[in-house]
Here is the input.
Amino acid sequence: MAGLYFEQFELNQIFSHPIRRTVTEADNVFFTALTHNPAALHLDEEYCREHTEFGQRLVNSAFTLGLVVGISVGETTLGTTVGNLGWDEVRFPRPVFHGDTIHVESEVVSLRDSRSRPDNGIVVFEHRGFNQRNELVAVCKRSALMLRTPAQ
Here is the structure.
């Protein structure tokens, strides 16, 4: 199991995730279509050239959020999480475009015992996604309900 148990996390611990991912046009178009988002901002290159400050399509921010969190899973919660409790303070300070390569770091910003589930603890991560120029493109806090280390 690659993920860590609740007791293995430390406050302010930072993970620099080794996986990087270049976002493709197909990623954006498929995701946008699958989620029934008809926004021209994601689908219509001509519209974006003529009517937006960016001059090109933007990658769907819900895809960006999913990618940033997904990249974090291998070193943090793979096989050791019960589930996500929520995402807070989701921000996209810069747009993501087709061809951008995203890398992620995660920081443990809070740890606490679960009051209702004694076999679990709650870890709050701050996930930060950066493009190939190291510009912050996404940030969110994710609350995860984590397994405790199994009794031997």
